[in-house]
Specification:
Radius of gyration of chain A: 20 Å
CATH topology of chain B: ABC transporter involved in vitamin B12 uptake, BtuC
Shape of chain A: globular
CATH class of chain B: Mainly Alpha
Radius of gyration of chain B: 20 Å
Order of helices and strands of chain B: HHHHHHHHHHHHHH
Oligomer: heterodimer
Number of strands of chain A: 0
CATH architecture of chain B: Orthogonal Bundle
Largest sheet of chain A: none
Helix content of chain A: over 70%
Number of helices of chain B: 14
CATH architecture of one domain in chain A: Orthogonal Bundle
Order of helices and strands of chain A: HHHHHHHHHHHHHH
CATH superfamily of one domain in chain A: ABC transporter involved in vitamin B12 uptake, BtuC
Strand content of chain A: under 5%
Number of helices of chain A: 14
Largest sheet of chain B: none
Number of strands of chain B: 0
Chain lengths: 320, 319
């Protein structure tokens, strides 16, 4: 049971990293302080704990969302943040800000999720019409499609003089996470966990429409469930911390290369690995330019691409 | 075999439209002293045209050596590499040192670096075109992300004052063209275009693919390397003048294939160049003068270019 071992090992590493993350920051904080000092405990619960939780949830749920999208589209090289879903969520936030400036965070979240869902459906509709013989078209179309929605966002923001405002959601980072500002992410965590109950169905969807219907699956229903799940996760991430690209692409690819596509077994690994990689990036972002911070997306962009290139070349021909 | 006739009329039509757009660009909404307005706008016009032709030609060349109509140098991260090299220079030497050097020197060194770097990276990648096209393209896209992330990373680390040195070339902007470099880059582009024009028949052969090219007496590997050098030079010119542009190349080359359907580079290169210049000059005139919008042209080009690309793809005419 290598798989099982890897899971437990990953979980242990994740716990150690989280512990480390709690005690890294501009204000000095050591484990002993909490017992002696009430101020230190306050700091821990207002800032450090929320931040660590936000990083873990974001990493895990984005990786899971990426895996689901790859199954739905049947292509290894797409992920929600670059293929229109993330941009759709940003467009939703922008529209809410323009037309209902007084809207509560919940309204914002619902509208962002709805528009993210619409743009994911659009992407799926376009991908369905592409010739199946050219798998490399799909990621390119995703990039262009995401670019179009991104350009709409920039255009509207530019005309309304909201460019700086929207920047917060376009470049995701965790430095703004405090108690009371991130709790929506728990919904994303719950949604990501719920997808585990449909893991087998997603794995079958990955075999294609004919095979799924042959196996007695309600194909359209599962596709809709998947789309809703990945849109909600992506939109919630964008609303609370901003866009973090590449997590949903790199992590599922790594796991699938080593352990295959039996989602019931691999989905927890995807979540653990995603949370771990994002947490490492966030910790590095905090340390490298201390006391300033480097956005997690930038650090992850460097680490993720290097890992991805290594995978692409180090183990050629395996599980591709 | 009969040689297909050059679509002279269509090319002339495009040229006439470009002249019209240029005249409008020069005169529309001009107030005050013509002696100031005309030379001022003429430099901007020239810069736009240089950039337009550089981008369209680089895209055609790249599509020729990869035998693929949906790739552009910017998707594969060429312009991101240019910005990365500039950022690295500022990071290593310090912004003051770089700012003190003349713009021309920085540009030339940057071009040389980009040529070497792209030969090292994409030269080895191109060998895989036949073996594993998918992996090559994926690597290119990932390289693009890596270059952008590394640039962002270094920009965070360097001093904000020094950051200003790079900022100009990190974002696409057509309304504030860097005119200091104009003479030099126009010269470089002209030279590169001459070489490309002399190569046009060899390019036709290279576009047929590795085996066909060898059969026809062409050395594909050498051809690829020469073309790669030309692409690196042209991309440097456009990035130095206006910054990275995402979908312009894709848009104009796709349009060129529609307007003048021909596989011959003698037709494609001028046609794409004219369309590209028309899009930039006409677009800038419409946005800035007619509609008085503040949105940068690059955003609009990305928007329209992206939509055109998707439509072409869905109609199945991209191949």
């Amino acid at each position: 049971m290598i798989r099982f071992g890897a899971g437990w090992l990953g979980l242990c590493a994740l716990v150690c990293l989280s512990f480390l993350s709690l005690f890294i920051g501009v204000i000095d904080l050591s484990p002993w302080d909490i017992l002696r000092d009430t101020e230190a405990a306050k700091l821990l619960f207002i800032s450090r704990f929320p931040r660590t939780a936000a990083v873990l949830i974001t990493g895990a749920s984005l990786a899971v969302a990426g895996m689901i999208m790859q199954m739905l589209v049947r292509n290894r090289f797409v992920e929600p943040m670059t293929a229109g879903t993330g941009q759709g969520a940003a467009l939703g936030i922008l529209l809410v800000t323009l037309f209902i400036p007084m809207a509560s965070i919940l309204t914002k979240m619902v509208i962002a999720s709805a528009i993210a869902l619409v743009s994911s459906i659009g992407f799926l509709a376009i991908v369905r019409r592409l010739p199946p013989t050219q798998p490399l078209l799909v990621p390119l179309v995703g990039l262009v499609y995401g670019g179009i929605i991104g350009a709409v966002v920039t255009f509207v923001a530019y005309q309304a003089d909201l460019l700086q405002y929207i920047e917060v959601w376009i470049n995701g980072e965790f430095s703004g996470v405090l108690q009371g500002r991130y709790e929506l992410l728990w919904i994303a965590a719950v949604v990501a966990m719920l997808t585990y109950f449909v893991a087998d169905q997603f794995a079958i969807i990955g075999l294609g429409r004919t095979a799924s219907i042959n196996l007695g699956l309600n194909y359209d229903q599962v596709v809709i469930i998947g789309l809703v799940a990945l849109s909600v996760v992506t939109a919630l991430t964008v609303v609370t911390v901003g866009m973090i690209p590449f997590v949903g692409l790199v992590v599922p690819n790594i796991i699938s290369r080593f352990y295959g596509d039996n989602l019931r077994a691999t989905l927890p690994l995807v979540a653990i690995f995603g949370a771990g990689l994002v947490l490492i990036s966030d910790i590095l972002g905090r340390i490298l330019r201390y006391p300033f911070e480097i956005p997690v997306g930038t650090v992850f962009g460097v680490i993720g691409t290097v890992v991805f290139l290594w995978l692409l070349y180090a183990r050629p021909g395996h599980a591709r | 075999m009969r040689d297909p006739v050059m679509p002279v009329r269509r090319l002339c039509g495009l040229a006439a439209l470009l002249v019209l757009a240029s005249v409008l660009f020069m005169t529309l909404g001009a107030r005050g002293n013509w002696g100031f307005v005309l030379p001022f706008r003429a430099t901007k016009l020239l810069a736009l045209i240089v950039v337009a032709v550089a981008i369209s030609t680089a895209t055609i060349l790249f599509q020729t050596i990869t035998q693929n109509r949906i790739l552009t140098p910017s998707i594969m991260g060429f312009d991101a590499l240019y910005v990365l090299i500039l950022t690295t220079a500022v990071y290593v030497l310090g912004g003051q040192a770089v700012a003190r050097l003349s713009d021309q020197l920085v540009f030339v060194v940057n071009v040389v670096c980009l040529v070497l770097a792209s030969l090292a990276l994409f030269g080895t990648l191109l060998r895989q075109v036949r073996a594993d096209l998918l992996r090559m393209i994926l690597t290119g896209i990932v390289f693009g992300v890596l270059f952008r992330s590394l640039t962002g990373f270094m920009q965070r680390i360097i001093d904000p004052n020094e950051f200003a040195v790079i900022q100009v070339s990190s974002y696409a902007r057509f309304n504030r063209v860097d005119t200091e470099l104009l003479a030099l880059s126009a010269g470089v582009t002209g030279l590169a275009l001459m070489v490309v024009w002399r190569m046009r028949h060899r390019l036709d052969v290279l576009a047929l693919g590795h085996d066909a090219a060898i059969n026809l007496g062409e050395h594909p590997r050498r051809g690829q390397i020469e073309v790669l050098i030309l692409i690196a030079i042209l991309v440097s010119v456009s990035t130095a003048l206006v910054g990275p542009v995402a979908f312009l190349g894709l848009l104009v080359v796709s349009l060129a294939h529609l307007v003048t359907p021909s596989a011959r580079h003698a037709v494609l290169i001028p046609s794409a160049g004219l369309i590209s210049a028309l899009v930039l000059v006409g677009g800038q005139t419409t946005l800035e003068r007619a509609l008085a919008l503040s949105t940068p042209l690059s955003v609009v080009v990305d928007l329209i270019g992206g939509i055109v690309f998707l439509l072409l793809l869905l109609k199945g005419s991209s191949r």
